[in-house]
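Dear Dr. V.,

Thank you for agreeing to look over these. As mentioned in my earlier message, I'm a first-year student in the group and I'm still getting used to reading structure tokens, so any feedback on how I've presented them would be very welcome. I ran two proteins. I've put each sequence directly above its structure. The first is here:
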Amino acid sequence: MNTELKNAIASTDKDAQYDASAKRLLGQKHILAHILVKTVPEFMGMNPKDIVPLIEGEPCISTVPVEPGLTNTVTENSGERLIGLNGENAEINEGLIRFDIIFYVRMPSKSGIKGELSQIIVNVEAQKSEPTEYDILNRAIFYVSRMISSQKGRDFENSNYNDIRRVYSIWVCMNMDKNSMSHIHLTKDDIIDTYHWKGNLDLLNIVMLGLTKELPEHDEMYELHRLLGALLSKELTINEKLTIIGDEYNIPVEENFRRDVNIMCNLSQGIREDGIAEGEARIILNMHKNGLTAEQIATYTGTSVDDVIAIIETDKKAVLV
């Protein structure tokens, strides 16, 4: 195994650990409450602390498969058939695509909408950047469609389609050119005359939220962007993150929360260092392949001769493995 491959594997492992920590932080109820305040109309204007008790149970993080037939789990209890989200054992369906975070939340009683169902289902997805191999909105549409179709047998039976829960799929995309937020949902266009077709156009909801690397000022418009930007930043120190999260947003910084923030900061530093080290090693090896001596390479790169020789020798041994 060559040096670059070893470094890539090590970096990938750190990336995976970083992603897992980021999802655990996003899955904290206080963070989810802030997201709901800015994305779901019934929660807008509420104090996030009042939303936390409305989030039912513990959010499922990277455990519920997206694939048809695997989103739900069936158990037998006292002769009754019980169906719930398949979030009990992540290893059973190893390698499958999973929802980053998915949970039920009760609607606030003040909504006052006649016939309003008591719950909605919310999915939060974190993306390092906008993907290039596919259009992200297409994936979001697939996810929100699965959130609807998987309810049959779990949230509604047979043809009781009026019992379908409203769903939100919220995508947090980092490293974007601008801070943005879009709500994508169903609409009705009358082509010939008008007719009131009964049903809920608000069942399907996608929210795309773009974050830039630089934190915006703390104002009402970019309040959520600043919170999530600070939470997921690879540049801020742990104290800078905790100051913004704790002081500006009055979010309780409990021990497990502080631990995950610390892990993320350490991993992001390691990822940066791995990238720098890998780049420097690649330059040294290229110079060596082009006939430069260890002394010449050391002069040009500002690296010691011993370190240059060690990199060259390590690469030779790796090639032989």
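The second protein is here, in the same arrangement:
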Amino acid sequence: MAVRTQADYVAMLRQLLPPGPAWDPDLEPGIDAVLQGLAAEFARIDSRTNDLLNEMDPATLREMLPDFEAAMDLPDECLGTEQTFDARRKAVIRRLIGTGGQNAAFFIAVAAELGYPNARVVEYRAPRFGRSRFGAAQFGTWGAQFFWQLILGARLTGGARFGVSHFGERFGTNPNSGIECVVQRWMPAQTVVDFIYE
């Protein structure tokens, strides 16, 4: 949507004036001052209307992020309140249009969104007659069929590391530790997940 400027509104208002010497800006300069004052307000309203249209879409919002967060019960207690603006906006979009799932592809997508693009899932199966093939899958005992691993790949950059960190930072912390909380909240209830950081 094109946003009209003050000059655009002045030109439109001049065209709406009735004909005659009483409305001629050369003969009556006060008319032009009134048109300039009205045009400035109309341009401001037009600009704010365009801003409102942008605020309706979470992908382009800037000002109404706290309102969207309040409506969607954000910030997520797993991810904490110290998030960047883009991370907060992504969380709003995820709550608004995201679909859930309890399969490996869903948890790999969650890990990728939270900063682990090389994540993968290893599922264990109990041996069953007619379905078991040597070397075809990960097998364990009957109880192991409810265990699965989320291998997250390399640690995210920006964590506390020797030679890079400042005094007082804790070593071995993960800058995206909230992924364990998110996965444990959404994982199938009968399963146990093991997180592996390479």
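From my reading of the second output: Helices lie at 6-16, 29-55, 65-71, 85-97, 104-113, 178-186. The mean pLDDT is 83. Does that match how you would interpret it?

Kind regards,
E.
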